[in-house]
Amino acid sequence: MSHHLTSHLRGTRVFLLALALAGALLGVMLVSAGASAYGVNYCAAWIASGNTCEGPNHTLVANIAYDDTGSNAYVCDMATNSSGNSVGGWGCGYGITETCYAGNQLLHGWIGNDSPYWLYMNGTEFYSQGCP
Amino acid sequence: MLRAVAVLAISTAAAAGGSALLSGSSGSPGGRTPVTLPEIQSVPAAQAASFAILRRPLRTSDAFVAIHPGPGPLGANPSLARTLHEAAGGMSAGFVSVVPANGALCLRVPYTSGGAQWFCQPLAVAREGKLVMALRPPGRLRAGDQLLIGLVPDGVRAVTVRTAAGSSAIVPVRSNVYDVRISSPRKVSIDLPGAGVRSYLAP
After folding, report:
1. Predicted structure pTM score
2. Within chain A, where are the H helices?
3. Pair B48, B154: CB distance under 8 Å
4. pLDDT tens column, A25-63
5. In a domain, B1, yes or no
6. Which residue segment(s) compose the domain that B89 sits in?
7. How far apart are CA A99 and CA A60, in angstroms?
8. B132 inside domain
9. Are residues B135 and A91, on separate chains, in Cβ contact within 8 Å?
10. Which of A88, A124, B15, B190 gives a 20 to 30 Å CA spacing to A8?
């Protein structure tokens, strides 16, 4: 009887542990999904005049280049596919510039500092939001 | 049972927290994230007052094919866009759209090879003629040839673009918009009505 009770309790524990692990996994998935729906920052760094920085690979729908110094300096953004070919070219503007992509292929975002000065910049890649 | 529930709750919370930390690490410290503003539903009077292109009635040719549905940067509303045709060729598909946004104005230029470039500035900055963007060929950032596109307020008939080589081009303004293919622009000068000449370092 005692042995039966012990094995029953053990079975219940295993079940609950499995449930706990499933819940934990669900938590990971839910939070990760929320994060990936937003996007990722990349190349947050001081970038010399005329230099560029390449971001990670995603099915991009948008790539944004920022001048984080607040000086409204001239910055550029671009994206390249797996063959290294650009989709469009460099788009440049003061302070911040953004390009929308179809989201149907893996692309690397790029940012570039086209001001005469060093700039603290960053790029943001979005891969599941609207971008008209 | 209570212990099991506690294990479940703690595991889930720990996983969620850990994952949040991990997802946070994908964004580098110090990086900016875009400001999300509500999409505007009509052309703000202050924007229409300074830019005649936004006062004219919408035409069927103003609508552009959005790459994805939804608002543009800073709450820009594509359905309020006014679109001009420009000479196609190079990187540009041959259209420039002026899109009102929330406290700002945007230019949108589709690429020939797919994608569309957006550039926005606050209204006050746009009134100063500093809504200037450039499309450049891929490769080295400072390659010479590019398409320079800008928006200027009412009353500006032309802008002067000086190049690094010392030449200058007088670019006509059409419906508040100018665009020019030019090599190594150095300075854009705009004679603003009542405010004098403003010069900006060009890309």
Report:
1. 0.79
2. 2-36
3. no
4. 333 333 333 333 468 999 999 999 999 999 999 999 999
5. no
6. 39-201
7. 10
8. yes
9. yes
10. B15
